[in-house]
Structure prediction request, 146 residues.
Amino acid sequence: MSRSSGNPFDAESPTADRAAVEPLAALVAVLAVGAALGLYAVALDDATIDRQRPSAETSLDRVERTVTVGGVVEPSRLRDVREFRHPTTVTVVTDERSWRTESGDDAPAATVAGAGDSSAVAERPVTVRVGPGRNVRGTVRVVVRR
Prediction:
């Protein structure tokens, strides 16, 4: 029987050595665990990759690895860029000249840049080899149709 039934408290009973937690401490512990689980869920959601939409940044990383030799982009290597899963346009631009390759039947225009557009755009400044021993600053730009 419990103490609430009206029996007097007996210090020698087997229930006397049980510990009790204050209600406020228990509430704080439950709130702390709930907050930790909530933060974990948010962090996990932010860490997952959005597999529904193609990422222009991922494509840009792949293109840059393919066309770069010794830290310098060689535009002639654009032909080595393999087919992409989604329609993609890759452009290397300098002040003097530009090179472009397209992948897919419905490749987006290289100048697409609208917030409401259905294309993802990524670009990065690079050094471009334009001739033997002649390098200039340029940009690699990737546009992926979503």
User: Anything to note?
Assistant: The chain has two helices and six strands. The mean pLDDT is 80.
